[in-house]
Amino acid sequence: QAAEGAVFYLFGATGDLAKRKLFPALFSLYKEGKLAENFAVVGLARRPRTDDQFRTDVYESIVEFCRYKADDAALWNKFAEHFTYMSLDINNVDGFRELNKRSLELDQKFNIPGNRLFYLALAPELFGPVSFNLRDGGLLESGGWKRLVIEKPFGYDLETARKLNGQLSQVFKEEEIYRIDHYLGKEMVQNIEAIRFANAFFEPLWNNKHIANVQISLAETVGVEDRGGYYDKSGALRDMMQNHMLQMLTIIAMEPPSRLQPEDIRDEKVKVLRSLRPFKNGEEVRANVVRGQYSEGSLGTKSLTGYRQEDSVNPESVTETYFGARVHVDNFRWAGVPFYIRTGKRLPVKTTEIVIEFKNVPENVLFRAGEEVNPNLLVIRVNPMEGIYIKFNAKRPGTDNDLQPVAMEFCQSCQIGINTPEAYERLIFDAARGESTRFTRWDEVSQAWAFVDEIAKAWKETDSDLAFYPAGSWGPEVMDQILAQDGFNWWPVN
Ligand code: BG6
User: Fold this and answer.
1) Known catalytic residue at 244
2) Rounded CA gap, 451 and 132, in Å?
C-alpha cells in the first residue's frame, strides 16, 4: 500500500547522500507503487538551480545508483514532474515563508492534504536553526501531519545531544522526530527478530545457558575517503559504535517484545542499553576496549597511506579508525556472556557479520577423548552478503567417529529474483507512513551516549593505548588477546 501523500523537503539536495541514496530510494519506491501520485519533492540547498537542472541531477543519480533502471521514459517523466528545486538560505526566515507559499501550491497541484516530511541531510548543528525557521516560516501550519527526519550524528556526546534534543523538542514532538540509523533499515538487521522469535531451533537456546559468546564485526575496506574533516573529530567510537554497533547488539540481546509494535520494540531495546555494564574507570576501559589507527599498508597489490596522511586529517591525530570491545549485558538472560564487537576502516574485507557461538555439549566419552569439538555457530550475514548459516558437527565419512564441522547456508543475496530494497528505501517509506520502529528514540540515543561517553572520557586521560595497525590488516592484535583471555577467538568472517 502506498504511503499517504506528502510534500518531501530535502535539505541538502545537492549533497552526496541525496545523490547516492535518497533520489534512488524515492525512485524505487515510486516504481513499486509505494509512493502514489500525490507527492512532491522540493530540493533545497543554497546553490541556485533550475527545476530542469535539478531533475537532471536526480536522473543522473538514478542511472548511477538505483537498483531499478530509469529506462521507461514515460515513467521517468511522470516521476520527474513531482520534483522542484528552491535555493534557500537556511538562516533567513523569509526564504521559509516563500517555501511555505510554494508548498501550498504543491498541495493544490498534487492534491496533497498538507502533510509535511522534512528530511535534513545537513550537518547536525543546523537541525535546531532549520527547525525554528520551519516553525517561524509557517510551514507547520498546513493542517496535515509533520515529520522531521534527521541523519546522524545526533550530537557529539550526551551533553550536546541533550542540547540538540532540547531545541528540536521546542518545535516537534518526540513521535514526530525520526532519527535515522541506516543499519535499522537493512533487511538482515530486521531479520534478526524473525530468526530469533520465529524459530524453535534458536529461541529456547538464546541465553547464557547455551550461548558462549556473541561476536559482531563491521569491517570496511575504505579509509576515510574525502570525509577526513568530519571523521577526525568523530572517530569509530562516535561514527559506528554509538549507533550501528549498539543497535545490532540491542536487537540480538533484547527480550521478546510483547508485540511487534514500535514502542514495544523500542522499550525492549532501551532495557538492553540500560543493562550494559558501565566501565567504571580508565583502567576498566583499557582492559576491555581497544582503539586503533591505520598506518601505511596494502590491500592486494594496492598500497595504502596511513590515516595521518589522509586529506584534512591532523598529521598527529589520535583519532581511532578501529574500535573493539568486550561488553557485558548484565541481566538475567545474558549474565556471563561476553559480547565482542569490532569495527574499523581499512580492514581486509567489507563485511558486517554477527556470530553466535553456542556452548559445547558436555564433555563425554563418545568422541575421541581430549579432542576439541567445534562449537555450533549461527552466523548472520548483514552486509554486503545477506544470509544466514549454521555450523555444526557431523561424522567424517569413512572414519569410525571422527567429527568434521559442516555448514548449512541460506544465502539471501544469491537468490535470483530477490532484489533487496536499500536501507534508505525502507526508512523513507516508513517515515512517510508514520512507522517509527526502525528509528531511534531519544532514550535509546541518550543511553547509548552515556555508555560511549565513559569510554571517551577514559581516552582523554591518556592516548598510550592507541594501537597502530597496518592498513589492510584485521586491526590491533590486542583485541585478539582480549578474546583469548576468555578462551575464545574471532571466527573468520566472510
Ligand atoms: C556510516 C558511517 O554511518 O556508515 C560511515 O558514517 C560508514 O563511516 C558507513 O562507512 C557504513 O555503512 P554501510 O551500510 O556501508 O555498512
Assistant:
1) yes
2) 30
Ligand-binding annotation for 269, yes or no, is no
Q: Which of 16-25, 269-278, 326-335, 360-369 has the lowest mean pLDDT?
A: 360-369
The CA-CA-CA angle for residues 41, 44, 49, to 5°, reads 100
Q: Where are the beta strands (DSSP E) in 174-328?
A: 177-180, 211-219, 289-295, 297-299, 302-304, 322-328
For 64, counting Cβ atoms within 10 Å of its Cβ (0-12 exposed, 13-18 middle, 19+ buried), the class is exposed
Distances (CA, A) of 42 to 150, 371, 469, 485: 16, 65, 45, 55
User: Is 383 touching ligand 1 by the criterion CB < 6 Å?
Assistant: yes
Q: Which of 244, 321, 427 to mutate to test the pocket of ligand 1 (most atoms within 8 A of CB)?
A: 244
Q: Which long-range contacts (CB under 8 A, 24 or more apart) does 159-168 make?
A: 161/445, 161/446, 161/449, 162/446, 164/124, 164/127, 164/128, 165/442, 165/445, 165/446, 167/127, 167/128, 167/131, 167/132, 168/127, 168/128, 168/131
53 and 88 in contact (C-beta within 8 Å)? no
pLDDT at 365: 74
Q: What is the pTM of this model?
A: 0.96
6-34: pLDDT as tens digits: 999 999 999 999 999 999 999 999 999 99
> Alpha-carbon distance 96 to 83, whole Å?
18
Q: Which residues pair with residue 326 across a beta bridge?
A: 340
Centre of ligand 1 to C-alpha 421, Å, is 17
On whether the CB atoms of residues 44 and 10 are closer than 8 A, the answer is yes
CB atoms within 10 A of CB 144: 15
Ligand 1 lined by 454 (C-beta under 6 Å): no
Rounded Cα–Cα distance for residues 4 and 479 (Å) = 48
Consult the annotation and say whether 107 binds a ligand.
no
Measured between alpha carbons, how far is 265 from 324 in angstroms, rounded to an integer?
A: 27
Query: Residue 52: how many CB atoms within 10 A of its CB?
Result: 11
Mean pLDDT for the stretch of residues 38-49? 97
Report which protein residue has its CA nearest ligand 1's atom 5.
239
Q: What is the pLDDT of residue 417?
A: 65
| pLDDT single digits (tens) 225-239 | 999 999 999 999 999
Which amino acid residue places its CA nearest to atom 10 of ligand 1?
A: 220
Q: Amino acid letter at 183?
A: Y
Determine whether the shortest distance from the Cβ of 57 to ligand 1 is under 6 A.
no
Nearest residue by C-alpha to atom 14 in ligand 1: 183
Helix (H) or strand (E) holding 389: strand 387-395
Per-residue pLDDT, averaged over 477-486, amounts to: 98
Find where cell 541518550 sits: 446
To the question of whether residue 292 is assigned a binding role by annotation, the answer is no
In this prediction the ipTM stands at: 0.99
- pLDDT of the residue at 21: 96
Q: Does the annotation flag 31 for ligand binding?
A: no
